Amino acid sequence: MAHFLAFAGSNSSRSINFALVKYTVSLIEQHEVQLLNMANMPFPLYSEDYEREKGFSNSLVELRDDIRVSDGLILSVNEHNSNPSAYTKNLLDWLSRLDRKFLENTKVFLMAASGGKRGASGSLGIIDALLPRFGAEVVATFSLPLYHENFDPGKGIINAELAAKHREALDRFLSYF
Q1: Can you give the CATH number for the domain in which 49 is found?
Q2: C-alpha torsion sign, points 149, 150, 155, 160
Q3: What b/e string do you get for 21-38 counting C-beta neighbours within 10 Å, with b at 16 or more?
Q4: Cα(170)–Cα(166) distance, rounded to whole angstroms?
Q5: What is the domain count for the chain?
Q6: Which of 88, 117, 132, 144 is the least crowded, having the fewest Cβ atoms under 10 Å away?
Q7: Domain that holds residue 102
């Protein structure tokens, strides 16, 4: 049995990406999943001065340790103006300062959701290209466009074609374990 860490790269209490992550992990059987709500994990804006004066927070060290002991990572990133959100970028900045290869040998299922037609594809592409720099292997990706039309919080992905693509990507990720 594998152990996965799952979270959204969003600190919003109403994150559609967190809803997608929760739905995704509900489909996983025979593996253990640790689901984190990043709305409960505030991190200060990264700066070298802050790092020098205050160091790394316990919650950051614990997150890095949770990533290290997981067999795989399920991550859904949000998008602001075709880029990863400031929260996502800030989180990656902090983690990479603590440990440059914080994702060493980590298989990643990378997702993104947005209310628009592009499904946060800009953010997805940027993060997909960035994570390998930290040691990750992105083995599957999925983009959910038009979230409010294609997702029901009680049912999950309601568009049959998108649900099939999501399942295919999840199965590809799970095939590594």
Answers
A1: 3.40.50.360
A2: positive
A3: bbbbbeebeeeebebeeb
A4: 6
A5: 1
A6: 117
A7: 3-174
**Within 13 Å, how many C-alpha atoms sit on residue 35's CB side?**
13
Determine the distance from the C-alpha atom of residue 150 to the mean position of all C-alpha atoms in its chain, rounded to a whole number.
20
Structure tokens at 15: 């994150």
Whole-number Å distance between alpha carbons of 51 and 7: 24
Please give the single-letter amino acid code of residue 126: I
What's 1-12 look like in SS3? Answer: CCEEEEEECCCC
- Please state whether the predicted TM-score (pTM) of the whole model is above 0.85: yes
pLDDT tens string 107-141: 999 999 999 999 999 999 999 999 999 999 999 99
- Which position has the token pair 């340790």? 65
